[in-house]
Amino acid sequence: MLHTINKSPFEKNTFETCIRFLMPGDPLLFIEDGVYAVQSGNKFSPALEGVLKTNPVFALRPDLDARGITAIADGVECVDYEGFVALVEEHQVNSWF
């Protein structure tokens, strides 16, 4: 199952809640303000490092660019809109709001 997070972890607890339901191997995609979670060196970095041990993590490049985020955590793969669509086509989606 593909999990998508679109809310900033600084404003909502969706990232923390999502982590509790992730199954090993489930991809996690950060979009919109959710991309703040993958910025290097923030307070969510330890949790993200834990997720990266068992799950692929993606961030939508246009959303990173729109927010001026250039430094992201090691292991996070950036995808464009085409990559986003490919992930959605490949997996059932659970959106965390």
Properties at a glance:
about 20% strand; alpha/beta; Hypothetical Protein Ychn, Chain: A; five-stranded parallel β-sheet; single chain; about 35% helix; about 100 residues
Explain this structure.
- This protein is of the alpha/beta class and 97 residues long.
- It has one domain (2-96): DsrEFH-like (Hypothetical Protein Ychn, Chain: A), CATH 3.40.1260.10.
- The protein is 33% helix and 20% strand.
- It contains four helices and five strands.
- The chain has a five-stranded parallel sheet.
- The radius of gyration is 12 Å and the shape is globular.
How large is the share of residues in beta strands?
15-25%
- Written as H for each helix and E for each strand, in order along the chain, the element string is EHEHEHEHE
Shape field? globular
Question: How are the strands of the largest sheet arranged?
Answer: 4-3-2-1-5
What is the second-level CATH architecture?
3-Layer(aba) Sandwich
Low-confidence stretches: none
Helical/strand content category: alpha/beta
Helix content: 25-40%
Q: Cα-atom Rg, whole angstroms?
A: 12 Å
SSE blueprint:
Elements: E1 2-5, H1 14-21, E2 28-30, H2 45-52, E3 57-60, H3 61-66, E4 76-79, H4 81-90, E5 93-96
Parallel strand pairs: 1-2, 1-5, 2-3, 3-4
